């Protein structure tokens, strides 16, 4: 099985557990004299089984990520780089938007109103954000390609 397939299975298992959790909560109590909507104990057992499978998948995915080599590091390193690039991009984009006053568009009504001064170079920040977005796309593409090429470890 390829790593990408295991990631898809993991996402499906997480969704299934969340659905089971909601169904258990809806069926955990019922009115006297009425049948329960579903068997909460059976749902709980199903959730336990699905969580066991999920744990196994996560272990194998993590083991694979820590072992597979990509561009001078492991896949885990590339995932960390992608996460930090996303955060950097959000910080730089937010700074550029704040400095540009995107949330406070409008002009002074009176000469007596305070004039706002820009404390950051908006154009430079936007160029940096564009560069970060490009680097993020490159790392994400590398990760996606590797996910489809790497076999899941036992």
List keywords for this structure.
69% helix; flat; 4 helices; single chain; mainly alpha; 154 residues; two-stranded antiparallel ribbon
Summed up, what is this model?
The protein is mostly helical and about 150 residues long. The protein folds into two domains: about 1-65; about 70-145.
Helix content: 55-70%
Number of E-state strands: 2
> How would you describe the oligomerization state of the chains in this entry?
single chain
The description of the largest β-sheet is: 2 strands, antiparallel
User: Would you tell me the overall average pLDDT?
Assistant: 94
Task: Describe it.
- This protein has 154 residues and is mainly α.
- It folds into two domains: 67 residues; 75 residues.
- Helix content is 69%, strand content 3%.
- It has a two-stranded antiparallel sheet with strand order 1-2.
- Helix 1 runs antiparallel to helix 2 and helix 3 packs antiparallel against helix 4.
- The mean pLDDT is 94.
Secondary structure elements and pairings:
Elements: H1 3-27, H2 40-67, E1 69-70, E2 73-74, H3 75-100, H4 122-149
Antiparallel strand pairs: 1-2
């Amino acid at each position: 099985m390829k790593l990408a397939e295991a990631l898809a299975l993991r996402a499906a298992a997480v969704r299934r557990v969340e659905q089971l959790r909601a169904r258990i909560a809806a069926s955990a109590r019922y009115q006297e004299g009425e049948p329960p909507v579903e068997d909460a104990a059976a749902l709980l057992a199903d959730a336990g089984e699905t969580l066991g499978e999920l744990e196994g998948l996560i272990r194998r995915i993590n083991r694979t990520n820590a072992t597979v080599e990509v561009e001078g590091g492991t896949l885990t390193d590339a995932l960390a780089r992608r996460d930090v690039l996303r955060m950097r991009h959000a910080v730089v984009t937010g700074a550029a938007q704040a400095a540009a006053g995107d949330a406070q568009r409008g002009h002074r009504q009176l000469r007596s109103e305070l004039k706002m001064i820009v404390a950051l170079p908006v154009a430079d920040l936007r160029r940096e954000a564009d560069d970060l977005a490009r680097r993020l796309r490159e790392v994400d593409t590398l990760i996606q390609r590797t996910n489809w090429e790497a076999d899941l470890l036992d």
